[in-house]
Amino acid sequence: MREPPAADDRLRSLLPKSVRRGHGELVLTACAFLEHRFPASLEALPEQAARTAFHECWPLADRLRFVQRPLPAVAFLTRIAGLHKTRDAAGLGLLAHALARGEAVTAPGGEEERDLRRVAEALDAPEAFVAWLVSRGLDPQPALRAAGGRRGPLLRLRPHDRAVAFAGLYLLARRPQTPPPEPAPPPEEPFPFWTVFDRHTAAGQQALRDVARDLKIPPAQLEWCYALFEGLRLHAETPSPWWRHYCRDRFARIGLPLEEAPLLWEPAKAQLHEALAEEGRRLQAELYRWKLEHGERVERLRRTVAEYWARLEETPKKQPPLFD
Fold first, then answer.
1. How far apart are CA 279 and CA 273, in angstroms?
2. How far apart are CA 88 and CA 90, in angstroms?
3. Helices (H), 82-201
4. Could you read off the pLDDT of 110-129 as tens digits, one per residue?
5. Residue 144 to residue 153: CA distance in whole angstroms
6. Beta-ladder partners of 237
7. What's 224-240 look like in SS3?
8. Is-contact 197 280, C-beta < 8 A?
9. What is the pTM of this model?
10. Which pLDDT band holds residue 63 (cuts at 50, 70, 90)?
11. Distance (Å, whole) CA 268 – CA 222
């Protein structure tokens, strides 16, 4: 039998960016499109939803026990799109990952440095870290299984994803009274489809090479500016000191002070936008035409997600809810 077609790099890039930028309707449309055209790709959604929670909205990390199948994952991704987001776990985890690998990290002092070293140590002794979490009254296994996806349990997570997951769980244990994220107002700007084409796509790679050559910018500096200012951009972002620490450290490594990055980015953004605008219009038109022809699929998925949340709210009180 023939293998089902795999989703192309455009769609793999579109979904997380639409979640980050708060475009829940686009998230729903993209998931319905995947369900119709690339059904096999839905199997990766639970893992993606779990990674998104740890990276973009860490206070939800202990509510991942339900995200084991594609439908809950779609519901979860759509809900995250509509929430305020915070990246403290991502910043702490990625810095701890670098520190655990023996890299020289520009660490903050005081209690923050202690937290950084504890997460780095946890990466070298995961079983002891899990035991510590349990001693603090936190059961990490459902969240770690969700984040591991098809790759399996704790130790088979990709190293940087495991670091962010550990950081999220560490923050949950250290800040047990952290409230769930608040709903965010809808974004005012339309989704910029050209930003889908980053270094993870063939068109984005070519555009980055061309613009870096034309403007005589080191490729690594241009890639990181594109990632920070467009690919990783969040709608309704809560201040995240650890993310700021990570960005400052990362940009120092590529020889660009973080404060100077916007000066490099402004002229480069104009050229990248010009180079990728047509690719973005084609993708937008493709999704628009598909939605016109298959709007019932989007509406059916919308109803299914709504029914899922309604059933979850009826879950017996003894079962921990996904959202308080």
1. 10
2. 5
3. 88-100, 110-124, 126-135, 141-148, 159-174
4. 889 999 999 999 999 988 99
5. 7
6. 85
7. HHHHHHHHCCCCCECCC
8. yes
9. 0.91
10. confident
11. 8
